[in-house]
Amino acid sequence: xxxxxxxxxxxxxxxxxxxxxxxxxxHVSDGARKRVLEVIEKYNYYPSAxxxxxxxxxxxxxxxxxxxxxxxxxxxxxxxAVEAARAVGSSLMVDAVDYDTRDxxxxxxxxxxxxxxxxxxATQPIGESWLNQIPPLNIPLVxxxxxxxxxxxxxxxxxxxxxxxxxxxxxxxxxxxxxxIGYVGGIPGRSSSTLRERGYINALLDxxxxxxxTLVREGDFFTESGYRHARELLSMPERPTxxxxxxxxxxxxxxxxxxxxxxHIPDDLSIVGVDNVFFTSYLxxxxxxxxxxxxxAGRMGIRMLxxxxxxxxxxxxxxxxxxxxxxxxxxxxxxxxxx
Length: 339
What we know:
With 339 residues, this protein is α/β, with parallel strands linked by helices. It is built from 13 helices and twelve strands. The protein has helices at residues 4-11, 15-22, 30-43, 49-56, 72-87, 104-113, 128-131, 162-175, 191-206, 223-234, 248-260, 294-311, 335-338, and strands at residues 61-67, 91-97, 119-122, 141-144, 155-160, 181-185, 216-218, 242-245, 270-275, 288-291, 317-320, 323-325. The protein has a six-stranded parallel beta sheet with strand order 2-1-3-4-5-11, with helices on both faces. A six-stranded mixed beta sheet has the order 7-6-8-9-10-12, sandwiched between helices. Residues 49-56 have low confidence and may be disordered.
């Protein structure tokens, strides 16, 4: 295989000129550029990626860390990130951490040792104590879905408007005549869970309905907890006529619980979820849900890693909008039920 020195010798130019041609710099004469390109084509020469990395201190490789969690949310996000990286000719190294993120520091260090140009942490929300253990990095770092970020990093944040999405979902049920609306939330203490519950409460209060804590349960974003809490709420003497589940996986649990209690969706019970994952349109009936732009978050996270290096601008914080998708799991409360 030819070397860059051989290319330079045969083309009658310096090694620096060959490098300038390879990097598409303009300050090379047309004649020299033509000779270099002819020799490169003759030997089918490709520069060493390792050598280029040593020269430019860039590997054109980015790191993505997601939760080791078999849910469509992370699959969609990773797909968006891969698409964005490929679009700019970068590679993406994807790693996963345990659901509790206790091995996060180890995975970050592993990616840094592989000379990635930036890292996108898109896991379950991370405790402040864990984030502060990450030593200052000389590369951009983007974190998903946090209100606070550590001060010792060059960090960006990308999140979703959870509160607005929850408000829209609850308001949709209210507008259909429901006022006893059960809510199964996410993991307590996490910012996304808090914002979703706040949206639910605000929608009730704005419509003139009191907040009833007996209609609220704390879930964990998995189907089993949605099933268990839906059964509890639907077994109440004065059961809710609608359920707002904090994500689609828990809504799937409610779909299982309702017919076991003799309830038909949506005639006897309206259900709304959050995420708009792929299976929601295939449920019977299709699920009304809040669309969370997870693929766009993956794309945006990658762009946020790349743009600072190109524009020398601070990494920004981005909150992506949510959108209610109305399908057939919700319907207007009948006059008889209202009475």
